[in-house]
Task: inverse folding
């Protein structure tokens, strides 16, 4: 199997120490986390982790199973880049003096969809949203004009074929509790993203 980039989406309760327990799962397997973002989800008191790793699907499947064994984890999914809509935010700090003097820079910024965040006497901060290629391209554009600083956020992703975890959680609440435990038989089938 060939390694590729995978997006893991993990729904959790908001508990202290959960992030370190999840990080330990990756470090024990010697897997590098390329991007990690945590935020509240559409459900009150449920948080969402977006984790990006480069691995084989078999390894990613095992990692998801391991993550789901954590007490505070509600559900873990994995998807390829083609199966999610994703963006990153990048900020660029450049000298204001250069921006004020160079009309070309203003044209370049509008060409790349940059937006002014802060203008001060000594520097101006621009923001760009997009994929790695788009934000990296902007670095090359601004370097000749004295790029002072650059920072990029972690990836934020939404699963394309998802009907929403909130809806599945509500459906789950209506079911009568059964006496049998059920294995997650759909974990390896990305088409059935939200099965419980």
Result:
């Amino acid at each position: 199997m060939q390694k590729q980039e995978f997006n893991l989406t993990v729904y959790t309760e908001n508990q202290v120490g959960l992030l370190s327990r999840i990080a330990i799962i990756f470090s024990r397997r010697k897997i590098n986390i390329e991007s990690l973002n945590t935020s509240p989800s559409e459900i009150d008191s449920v948080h969402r982790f977006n984790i990006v790793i480069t691995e084989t699907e078999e390894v990613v499947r095992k990692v998801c199973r391991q993550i789901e064994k954590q007490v505070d984890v509600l559900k873990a999914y994995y998807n390829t880049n083609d199966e999610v809509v994703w963006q990153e935010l990048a900020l660029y700090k450049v000298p204001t003096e250069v921006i004020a003097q160079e009309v070309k820079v203003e044209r370049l910024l509008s060409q790349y969809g940059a937006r002014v965040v802060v203008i001060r006497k000594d520097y101006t901060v621009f923001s760009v949203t997009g994929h790695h290629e788009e934000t990296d391209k902007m670095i090359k554009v601004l370097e000749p004009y004295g790029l002072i600083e650059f920072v990029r956020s972690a990836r934020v992703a939404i699963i394309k074929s998802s009907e929403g975890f909130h809806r599945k959680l509500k459906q789950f609440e209506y079911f009568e509790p059964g006496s049998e435990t059920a294995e997650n038989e759909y974990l390896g089938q990305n088409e059935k993203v939200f099965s419980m």
In short: The CA atoms of residues 36 and 51 lie 5 Å apart. The chain is about 30% helix and 35% strand. The two ends are 28 Å apart (CA to CA).
